[in-house]
Amino acid sequence: TVVNLDGKLVPPAKATISVFDRGFLYGDSVYEVVRTYRRRPFELDAHLARLARSAGRLGLEPAWDAPRTRRELLATLAAVPPEADPDPEAAPWNQGQLSLRVIMTRGAGELGLDPALAVEPRALVIASPLRAPPLAAYRAGVGCRIVGVRHEAPGAVDPGAKTGAHLANVLAVREARASGAHEALLLGAGGQVTEGASSNVFAVRAGALVTPPLGAGILAGVTRALVLELAREAGLPAREAPLLPADLAGAEELFLTSTAREILPVTSLDGRPAGGGRVGPVTTRLGALFRARAD
Ligand code: PDD
């Protein structure tokens, strides 16, 4: 792991932030997670654009602009030595790959919620080994649990912004993992499943791809957008429409998308077989198209 703190490479153990930093105190920060293929960042432009959008929604003036962020990210990546012992359980294309987390916080200041108290924004990059699901998970699929989240909770923020205020998602994953599920699927206020705690969700219904629209209160996933593009190019019918728990339970196929997971089949839901209980043909086809694009 290599850390770039405010433009300087520092040993991870020395990479520290003030206890008065608002990212720590209030989740007053935005972030992105970029991954590599063959040690090159994937979809970097889309991630940088989303980072700027997230910051804009919070009125957070980032310490680095997009060109500087790109330079710092590439410099951090270049400083990571090749992995000595790649994880044998990882899919071959994920072995030795990196996750690059870029964090922009509003910075430290006197205690108090008012963002004007922040003195100087900070920026950092953490380059660490990619933690992707094992190859077996892509072959067998994973389980998900539908979890109600407290949208009315103070601190619930614009789901379209990728902020450090992730507590609702943390608690949803806690609940999912307690039941042995890989991921939590979040139930929105209208009784619709919106997205995963750190992923987007797709179903195949009557042969067509369905995923909740951005207006449902979800993060505009970079992987989600790419999957929709690949479906369009392949002439696969796809639409953005609400998904109810029953729609998921009755779907022919289910999968999650995210930077680290790519396209990850879901074969059980709330402890029952779902998505046909196996990795379906549409998921397999999209997975192949995705691999061809990424690697
Ligand atoms: N999470 N929805 C939420 C709430 C997320 O946090 C993420 C990503 C996604 C998928 O977006 P993308 O395809 O751009 O990775 C959807 C990142 C990876 C994380 O928190 O680690």
From TrEMBL:
Give the E.C. number(s).
2.6.1.42
Q: In which pathway does it act?
A: Amino-acid biosynthesis; L-valine biosynthesis; L-valine from pyruvate: step 4/4; Amino-acid biosynthesis; L-leucine biosynthesis; L-leucine from 3-methyl-2-oxobutanoate: step 4/4; Amino-acid biosynthesis; L-isoleucine biosynthesis; L-isoleucine from 2-oxobutanoate: step 4/4
Q: Which reaction does it catalyse?
A: L-isoleucine + 2-oxoglutarate = (S)-3-methyl-2-oxopentanoate + L-glutamate; L-leucine + 2-oxoglutarate = 4-methyl-2-oxopentanoate + L-glutamate; L-valine + 2-oxoglutarate = 3-methyl-2-oxobutanoate + L-glutamate
Q: Which cofactor does it need?
A: pyridoxal 5'-phosphate
One of the GO BP terms on file: carboxylic acid biosynthetic process
Keywords linked to the UniProt accession:
Aminotransferase, Pyridoxal phosphate, Transferase
An example Gene Ontology molecular-function term: branched-chain-amino-acid transaminase activity
Tell me which Pfam families the record gives.
Aminotran_4
List the residue ranges forming a coiled coil, or say none.
none
InterPro entries in alphabetical order: Aminotrans_IV, Aminotrans_IV_CS, Aminotransferase-like, BCAT-like_C, BCAT-like_N, Class-IV_PLP-Dep_Aminotrnsfr
* UniProt protein name: branched-chain-amino-acid transaminase
Similarity remark? Belongs to the class-IV pyridoxal-phosphate-dependent aminotransferase family.
